Amino acid sequence: MNTPTHSLSLRTPAAALAAALLALAGAPQAHAAGHGDGTASAAVLRADLDVSLLHQSVRLPVHTALNEVRAPATAGKTALTVTLDGVESGRPVQLLGAGAASAKATADRHGARATARLAHARVHVPGLPLLSLIEVEAVTSTAVCEAGEKPEAKSTLAGPVRILGKRYEVTAGGPPTEVTVPGVGEVSLGFSQTRAGDAAATATALALDVTVDPLKLGVARVEGRVTLAEAACEAPAPAAAPAEAPAGEPAPRAQGGGRDLAETGGGSSTPLLAGTALALLAAGAGVLLLARRRARR
Question: Per the record, where are the segments of Low complexity compositional bias (predicted)?
């Protein structure tokens, strides 16, 4: 009655250990490899302004954006309004009105791309509801960052612009256009500000540094910056190069089969582990046989 139980207790550890060693010898090793996606962002309009009120030591900050997106995203709103206490009798102030406005950003492991477009647009600042800060026919900015390629950034402008009611021709990459209107204010306009580095690119179609003194509708002074059609991207991080074997050392190959050990899941320690497992099996069988002989006596 004791023999089956005793023989099972002797056989089980040896067999289990041998099976574990064989499984270890044949188990493949996994190595994670890969790289991240690129990044992209775009915005049709961005305003960073400080509005000072008449007869009050109050400064109202205006920090807002229209169609600001980060990959993956698309936006197509055509108007942006803000409401400031004490400005224009508390009515909403329309900063931007456009016939068309869109921003799109996409990114994956192959590259990133951002585009911002604006057409038939008028930009206003608080205190000047009837006079446009700037009017544009059409502007577009694009930034492209493909994996392994040099990033590109580009801005285009169709037609002239009107700044504080005056018509101007602007030159891409040229010096800023300075505009002064007595009793109204000053505007410095820069067109097509682009940058492209080793892995990132940015493009801004129009950038306006504003100092306006409307002296009406409760506003004493407006200062800050307004940008139109922004696009930016960053290329994906390059994939890590696979480790190379030292020079002069051939890759190990399985005996007789002609297949790489990497393909079968084995390694250089496979023969040693397999031999150890077989030795343990033989030892377990010997112990089992000895136990049975003693049980018969």
Answer: 239-254
